[in-house]
């Protein structure tokens, strides 16, 4: 017996082939019998019992020993039957009867088609009403887009070290954010009476603005002025808001903070070299920059006024009013205050509504 490596390889391959054949032929006994019967029927060979079932004994062949002539059966099948041509008189009568039947069938078909059209119109009306109701429900029960959620996640990943941010609570599950998004999508202004914007609120406002900018850019709209204007009462608040918006630079959003802590000439030079989408500034510094025509805020689409309250000085309120005069469009406004004494003074005349949150 050979014992070389070639012999071992051949033996191994033979066992593999045998295993594959056995696996491929694993069928039940019933299916195997059906397959074998089909093969015998196709080859023309049948068992004795099957032959007796399909034919009867005759005086010439009482024991069914003679083989049957398959060629004769094939010839019988291939023979064509001759068509019997009817007479001319019968043809004329049949043609007249067929014409009458055709007319009656056409009339009945016309009535049936009208009935079918009426049914189809009724069904289409029902379907259209169902579609309208479903679209209304879907609009009322809408949810933020995936892009907005990705913006919130980016801010959360970058702000985990911030003390004001709760690390265990995802931004997506913030109830105030959902309420703000519903008011924003429905065109209603927001009035918050908690006194100052939190990190979660700033994240939702910024992410919603980024989502709006990307959707409008897909439609072909270009922005030459800042879209979001965030007015804050102090330099510290401006730095905090900018730190929340800074992670959105990954989505092409540039945030610039303007406050009295830096020289105005340095800020003017920076605005010439950069076109920010978000602008975080104190009202006094913004009024000074607008008067020098260093920045254009006529196309602001979202206006956030933070830190407005009963203790606010009159100069702060007057500077906000002067800023609103330079905005030519009707922006979506969010006012964060400690009360509602200045609501009627700052709210615009043609606003669709105000959502108040305590």
Automatic annotation (TrEMBL):
Where does this protein have compositionally biased stretches of type Basic and acidic residues?
83-127
Q: What are this entry's molecular-function GO terms?
A: ATP binding; helicase activity; hydrolase activity
Region Disordered: what ranges?
1-138
This one is known as: DEAD/DEAH box helicase domain-containing protein
Could you tell me the superkingdom of the organism this chain comes from? Answer: Eukaryota
Gene3D superfamilies noted in UniProt: P-loop containing nucleotide triphosphate hydrolases
Listed A to Z, the keywords are: ATP-binding, Helicase, Hydrolase, Nucleotide-binding
Q: Where is the composition biased (Basic residues)?
A: 9-20, 37-48
């Amino acid at each position: 017996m050979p014992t070389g490596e070639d012999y071992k390889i051949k033996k191994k391959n033979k066992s593999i082939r045998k295993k594959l054949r056995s696996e491929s032929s694993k069928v039940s006994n019933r299916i195997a019998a059906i397959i074998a019967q089909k093969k015998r029927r196709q080859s023309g060979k049948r068992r004795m019992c099957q032959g007796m079932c399909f034919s009867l004994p005759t005086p010439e062949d009482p024991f069914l020993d003679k083989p049957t002539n398959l060629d004769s059966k094939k010839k019988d099948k291939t023979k064509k039957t001759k068509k019997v041509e009817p007479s001319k008189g019968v043809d004329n009568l049949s043609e007249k009867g067929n014409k009458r039947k055709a007319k009656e069938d056409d009339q009945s078909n016309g009535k049936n088609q009208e009935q079918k059209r009426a049914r189809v119109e009724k069904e289409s009306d029902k379907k259209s009403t169902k579609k309208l109701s479903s679209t209304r429900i879907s609009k009322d029960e809408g949810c933020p887009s995936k892009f907005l959620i990705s913006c919130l996640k980016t801010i959360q990943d970058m702000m985990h070290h911030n003390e004001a941010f709760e690390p265990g609570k995802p931004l997506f599950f913030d109830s105030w954010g959902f309420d703000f998004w519903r008011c924003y999508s429905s065109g209603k202004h927001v009035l918050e009476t908690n006194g100052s914007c939190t990190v979660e609120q700033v994240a939702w406002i910024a992410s919603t603005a980024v989502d709006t900018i990307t959707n409008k850019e897909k439609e072909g709209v270009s922005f030459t002025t800042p879209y979001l204007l965030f007015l804050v009462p102090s330099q510290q608040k401006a730095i905090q808001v900018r730190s929340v918006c800074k992670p959105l630079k990954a989505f092409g959003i540039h945030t610039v903070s303007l406050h009295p802590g830096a020289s105005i000439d340095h800020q003017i030079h920076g605005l010439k070299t950069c076109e920010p989408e978000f602008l975080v500034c104190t009202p006094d510094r913004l009024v000074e920059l607008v008067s020098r025509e260093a920045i254009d805020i006529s196309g602001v689409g979202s206006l956030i006024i933070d830190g407005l309250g009963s203790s606010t000085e009159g100069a702060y309120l007057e500077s906000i009013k002067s800023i609103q005069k330079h905005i030519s469009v009707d922006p979506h406004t969010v006012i964060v205050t400690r009360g509602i004494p200045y609501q009627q003074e700052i709210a615009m005349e043609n606003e669709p509504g105000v959502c108040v949150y305590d």
